[in-house]
């Protein structure tokens, strides 16, 4: 008897302290290595969460870091005692009790706060119900779909499982359904807003068996205002800046080349800066990449436009003279109206003379052609008619050649200076149209 009392005393003493009589009575014969209801079915563990903060959400690592209060409740029939008040114990006494082996699935790194002591709470109720609370900071993986970045929505999860006890030993459930998770309504994030959240109960199937699982889902919507001010507005202004070259004379080669090259280099720098906060290697073509690519194409197109216009000017020696004459005539019409009217009359007379000469020459040409064709008509009549298949093939060939010549004639530039005039309208209208298509697709589809 003496030896049994000493053994019990040593079990009750921890760190030089003797447990209170109530705890001594509860701990007498208690085995923390055996779960409650060991021979009478599984023990049910209810859980609830309080989200204290979501510190960071990383697109590069595809994870988020959160600080949570995890509360677990279960009933242990071995801890029933008389009374109507609960017992709040020091968290360090948890080593004397059985607790569920709950772990966070997809957790990369987690730790229990221990300032000033380990942040644990143990509370035992008279009916044997145990409340066990922890304060944990964890980094959890979150698979993200960045195809609509920065107009994307991400759904992340926090999964809780039992490590060693399967569904025959332990059952998990949310204590109050969706209301078991609190703290998100008052949460403020830097780039996101919490749109929706809900809970679910599932089972994890492994080779070793089926294990209980609780899942907390929450949907995050990214705030786009920051990206509009940081990326979209500067890139659009760079596109508008590249159009300034259309109003600069083609003879000002250094000025137009400087604007074109500067906007291209600035746009390249902006594109590189927009990718610094994103994964370097991924298969996503993001919405922001599409927009920056569109802006870069317009800026590069403005630079190519001047190269084409300048090339046409060099191979069209009268282009500069045409523009110079137009400017001179415009000045004359403005300063000397009478002289301008006289010049207009002289121009109309010249046009009439030219039209008369053209008509006469066309009549003479028709007569020559009829005279040349008439001797050959008899010889052609004596020839055998060609088969209809050859005629149709020849007609198709001539038709194709005619279309090609018409297309080449349309592409011929009469005045290289008109290229800038067309670009002043086509570039802005095209950019507005592409923007309407872009924002409509990514915001509503």
Task: List the main descriptive attributes of the protein structure presented here.
elongated, 45% helix, alpha+beta, 445 residues, four-stranded antiparallel β-sheet
Structural notes for this entry:
By secondary structure, this protein is an alpha+beta fold. 45% of the residues lie in helices and 25% in strands. It has helices at residues 2-12, 21-27, 225-242, 253-274, 287-314, 319-335, 337-382, 388-411, 418-444, and strands at residues 13-14, 17-18, 43-58, 63-75, 87-89, 102-105, 107-112, 120-124, 129-141, 153-162, 170-174, 181-182, 192-206, 209-222. It is elongated.
Give the arrangement of secondary structure elements.
Elements: H1 2-12, E1 13-14, E2 17-18, H2 21-27, E3 43-58, E4 63-75, E5 87-89, E6 102-105, E7 107-112, E8 120-124, E9 129-141, E10 153-162, E11 170-174, E12 181-182, E13 192-206, E14 209-222, H3 225-242, H4 253-274, H5 287-314, H6 319-335, H7 337-382, H8 388-411, H9 418-444
Parallel strand pairs: 3-11, 3-12
Antiparallel strand pairs: 1-2, 3-4, 4-9, 5-8, 6-10, 7-9, 8-9, 10-14, 13-14
Whole-number average pLDDT?
A: 82
Beta-strand percentage range: 15-25%
Q: Into which percent range does the helicity of residues fall?
A: 40-55%
Structural class, by secondary structure, is: alpha+beta
Instruction: Determine Rg (CA atoms, Å).
Output: 43 Å
Q: Between the first and last Cα atoms, what is the distance in angstroms? A: 80 Å
Strand count, sense and closure of the main sheet?
Answer: 8 strands, mixed
Helix run count: 9
Strand segment count: 14
Order of helices and strands: HEEHEEEEEEEEEEEEHHHHHHH
Shape: elongated
Instruction: Detail the poorly predicted runs.
Output: 1-16, 324-337, 371-383
Oligomer: single chain
């Amino acid at each position: 008897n003496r030896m049994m009392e000493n053994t019990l005393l040593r079990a009750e003493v921890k760190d030089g302290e003797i447990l209170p009589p109530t705890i001594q009575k509860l701990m007498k014969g208690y085995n923390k290595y055996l779960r409650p209801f060991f021979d009478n079915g599984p023990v049910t563990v209810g859980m609830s969460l309080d989200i204290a903060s979501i510190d960071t959400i990383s697109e590069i690592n595809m994870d988020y870091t959160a600080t949570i209060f995890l509360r677990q409740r279960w009933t242990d029939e071995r801890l029933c005692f008389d009374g109507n008040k609960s017992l709040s114990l020091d968290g360090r006494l948890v080593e004397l009790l059985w607790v569920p082996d709950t772990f966070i699935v997809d957790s990369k790194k987690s730790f229990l706060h221990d300032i000033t002591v380990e942040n644990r709470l143990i509370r035992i109720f008279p009916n044997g119900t145990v409340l066990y609370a922890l304060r944990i900071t964890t980094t959890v993986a979150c698979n993200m779909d960045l195809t609509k970045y920065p107009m994307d929505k991400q759904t992340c999860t926090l999964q809780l499982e039992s490590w060693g006890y399967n569904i025959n030993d332990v059952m998990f459930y949310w204590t109050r359904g969706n209301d078991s998770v609190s703290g998100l309504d008052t949460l403020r994030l830097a780039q996101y807003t919490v749109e929706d959240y809900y809970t679910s109960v599932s089972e994890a199937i492994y080779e070793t068996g089926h294990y209980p699982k609780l899942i907390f889902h929450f949907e995050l919507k990214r705030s786009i205002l920051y990206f509009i001010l940081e990326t979209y507005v500067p890139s659009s202004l760079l596109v508008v800046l590249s159009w300034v070259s259309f109003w600069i004379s083609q003879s000002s080669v250094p000025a137009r080349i400087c604007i074109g090259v500067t906007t291209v280099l600035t746009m390249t720098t902006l594109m590189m800066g927009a990718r610094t906060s994103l994964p370097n290697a991924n298969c996503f073509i993001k919405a922001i990449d599409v927009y920056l690519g569109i802006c870069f194409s317009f800026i590069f197109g403005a630079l190519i436009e001047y190269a084409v216009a300048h090339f046409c000017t060099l191979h069209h020696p009268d282009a500069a003279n045409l523009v110079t004459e137009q400017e001179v005539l415009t000045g004359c019409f403005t300063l000397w109206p009478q002289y301008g009217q006289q010049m207009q009359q002289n121009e109309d007379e010249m046009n009439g003379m030219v039209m008369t000469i053209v008509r006469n020459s066309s009549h003479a040409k028709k007569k020559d052609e009829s005279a040349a064709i008439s001797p050959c008509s008899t010889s052609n009549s004596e020839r055998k008619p060609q088969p209809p298949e050859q005629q149709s093939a020849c007609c198709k060939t001539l038709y194709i050649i005619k279309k090609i010549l018409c297309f080449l004639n349309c592409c011929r530039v009469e005045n290289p200076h008109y290229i800038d005039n067309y670009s002043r309208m086509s570039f802005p209208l095209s950019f507005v149209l592409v923007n309407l298509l872009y924002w409509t697709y990514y915001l509503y589809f």
